[in-house]
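Re-run with default settings, no changes from the original entry. Doing this only to confirm the output is reproducible before filing.
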Amino acid sequence: ALPIYLLSEMAKLRDKFEIVGDVRGKGLMTGIEMVKDKESRQPLPPDEMSQIWEDCKDMGVLIGKGGLYGQVFRIKPPMCITLEDVDFGVAVIHEALTRHMMRRKVAAR
């Protein structure tokens, strides 16, 4: 049940953020594909990926990066993960994405 919960919580990020192109996974291994926008589906540039990654790290969540263009965040939690751990991880990624969208708005001005 926990892998399904993890995937469904991450899928909510796809529905909320324009830069989350896809969420997919098998078991506890989950990938979040990052894009410039859902229409073009072009990979999010490496510098933007790094900013989001650093924000997650600074808030206490370590995730990997992968994909052909380095545009997929890899979430590989340990088998002993709890529901509270999933909620914390999702909240941190949500906050990192929110911060990124704010930076993007400021840069567009």
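The CA atoms of residues 23 and 104 lie 22 Å apart. The chain has a mean pLDDT of 95.
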